[in-house]
Specification:
Blueprint lengths: L3 E11 L8 E16 L4 E8 L13 H12 L6 E7 L10 H16 L6 H16 L7 H6 L2 E7 L2 E6 L6 E7 L5 H6 L7 H20 L2 H6 L7 H4 L6 H10 L4 E4 L6 E5 L2 H17 L4 E7 L6 E2 L2
Parallel strand pairs: 3-4
Antiparallel strand pairs: 1-2, 1-11, 2-4, 2-5, 5-6, 7-9, 7-10, 8-9
L-homoserine (HSE) binds next to helix 5.
Length: about 300
């Protein structure tokens, strides 16, 4: 059995515009890294966090990585195990890119691998959801499930948990832009109304079904047409500087669809090629820089694998 491991887990785009809390996909970049080492005494310790500007707690009960690993060890009756965790944040926190999810998933995948995989990636999802609950108050799975399983994921049901991996067109690429404004997921969830008009619900479930059909049919234009959100986007877009102008720029420059990534403030566009995704991130970046909003951009294909061991 190995004594230490380094794991990368990917950022994710949750909701995919029309599928609030039920759709998500993983990207190749960015992502977080965890180094986990066995120690002699039982217990989970966080010894080091980098890249977080001191924002994340080192207390093992409060840190999402250690807290979810503790739940996992309890569940498999291995509280005799001791590990030391280093977390290396390689993406912005509170960005809507599934930052807490990437860290938590890297930690759980590392622990499960060190113990020779007693649980399947699917079985790890509930423990990763515990981390989300700690980070933002609700244990949604639309970041952690694609981060763990890779690719596109549908959470058909939460109770009981029913997670479906979906196929996707190989030429689908993603342009991601993080405008550096503060939008904590906890707050972005509080601003959503609890009731939905029937006509908006009809629009929404038509689009969710359209998007899933587009994924199965390899029809990128159908995927793009279905990226419309009558419920969440009109509310959350208020928190994103020039959201509708950014959308216009992306669509004018070849995006098939555009929307908020997770709870924002990051936005993403789907394209049919890497080149178009690069051109769109450059245009969006220029616009944000012109209005004095610091930003970071990423271009990625869909990550089919999820977490991986880094040598
Ligand atoms: N579905 C969640 C939300 C994702 O939109 O609040 C958070 O990244």
């Amino acid at each position: 059995m190995r004594d230490s491991i380094k794991v990368f887990a990917p950022a994710t785009v949750a909701n995919v515009v029309c599928g609030f809390d039920v759709l998500g996909f993983a990207v190749d970049t960015p992502g977080d890294e965890v180094i986990m080492r066995r120690r002699l005494e039982p217990g989970v310790v966080i010894s080091k966090i980098t890249g977080d500007d001191g924002k994340l707690p080192l207390d093992p009960k409060k840190n999402t990585v250690s807290a979810s690993v503790r739940h996992y060890l309890q569940h498999i009756n291995r509280e005799d195990i001791g590990v030391d965790i280093e977390l290396h944040k390689k993406m912005p926190i509170g960005s809507g890119l599934g930052s807490s999810s990437a860290s938590t998933v890297a930690g759980l995948f590392a622990m499960n691998t060190l113990l020779n995989n007693p649980l399947s990636p699917n079985e790890l999802v509930p423990f990763a959801m515990k981390g989300e609950e700690l980070a933002c108050g609700t244990g949604h799975a639309d970041n952690v499930a694609p981060a763990l399983l890779g690719g596109f994921v549908l959470i058909r049901s939460y109770e009981p948990l029913d997670i479906i991996s979906l196929p996707f067109p190989k030429e689908l690429h993603c342009a991601l832009v993080f405008p550096d404004v503060d939008v904590p997921t906890r707050d972005a969830r509080r601003m959503i109304r609890n009731t939905v008009q029937l006509k908006d619900a009809v629009t929404q479930w038509g689009n969710v079904a359209g998007l899933v059909s587009g994924l199965f049919m390899n029809d990128i234009d159908l995927i793009g047409r279905s990226m419309q959100d009558a419920i969440i986007e009109p509310v959350r877009s208020i928190l994103i500087p020039n959201f509708y102008r950014l959308k216009e720029i992306a669509l004018e420059n070849g995006a098939v669809g555009f929307g908020i990534s997770g709870s924002g403030p990051s936005v993403f566009a789907f394209t049919k090629s890497n080149e178009t995704a690069i051109a769109i991130t450059q245009k969006l970046q220029r616009h944000l820089t012109n209005i004095h909003i610091a930003n970071q951009t990423y271009v990625s294909a869909i990550n089919a694998k999820g977490p991986r061991i880094v040598d």
